[in-house]
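PROTOCOL LOG
Step 1. Enter all chains and additional molecules of the complex.
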Amino acid sequence: MHEFSTAVGVVETITDVAKEHKATRIKKVELVVGEFSMLNNEQLKFAFEIAAEGTLAEKAELIIESQKGEIDCKNCGFKGPVETQKKDVDHFVVDLVNIFECPKCKSNNTKISGGRDVYVKNIEVELGTK
Ligand SMILES: [Zn+2]
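Step 2. Run joint prediction.
Step 3. Record the structure below.
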């Protein structure tokens, strides 16, 4: 349930921000999800709905923007996005092994340099009438 813990974290973050701004309701959330975060967008949406229940974020619209994964090649110095062939890897392994092949020199001596994070890009709130 990687998605669920992520969703709970997102809800906590946005409700804190909303409270700071004295918002009464969160209408929309824009989330950037890195390709290497290994999160399933559909499951994340579902988890978000559950996590948001009873909070300011209840029934908020969740927009998910995907961010391409990027690697650094230690062999030829290539830095940039890679095409993942939807390798069926456990997400816990991603940090530990070099699983991505450099698109330039085909080396496996690579390091993930981007697209591993999930972050809230923007939220839209409804403010109180006062
Ligand atoms: Zn390379």
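Step 4. Note key features.
The first strand starts at residue 23 and ends at 34.
The chain has two domains: 2-68+115-127, 69-114.
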